[in-house]
C-alpha cells in the first residue's frame, strides 16, 4: 500500500502497474445499465476517461463549455491535497515532487484555499 492513497495498489510483476508508478485504482463501471463495482483495476488515465464518458452521458445533450478548466480544477485540488499530506505540508518537498516552482505551488494552494 503506498502512502499517497491507501486505495492505490502496486503489483511489481504487472507491467501496466509499473508503468503507472503504482497508481492503479478500483473503479466503478457501468454494468447492465447501472453503476456497479467491477473487480478490475483501472489506471488513473482510464479512471479519467471513464469519468468523462459518464459526464458526457449525464449531460443528456445539454450544452457544456470550459471542460478543460473544469477537469483541471477537479483533478488539481485533490492532487495538491494528497501531495501536501504526503510531504507533511512541506512546500519545498511538494514542489519538487510535483515538478513545480515553489512560488507556483504557493499560488495554486492559495487559489484552492489550502494556505
Keywords:
single chain, alpha+beta, 115 residues, two-stranded antiparallel ribbon
Structural description of this entry:
- With 115 residues, the chain is of the alpha+beta class.
- Helices cover 51% and strands 16% of the residues.
- A two-stranded antiparallel ribbon has the order 1-2.
Question: Could you write a compact summary of the structure shown?
Answer:
With 115 residues, the protein is of the alpha+beta class.
Topology diagram in text:
Blueprint: H1 15-19, E1 24-31, E2 34-43, H2 44-59, H3 67-86, H4 91-98, H5 102-111
Helix pairs in contact: 3-4, 4-5
Low-confidence stretches: 1-39
Cross-sheet strand order for the largest sheet:
1-2
Helical proportion, percent range: 40-55%
Mean pLDDT: 75
Rough outline: elongated
The profile of the biggest β sheet is: 2 strands, antiparallel
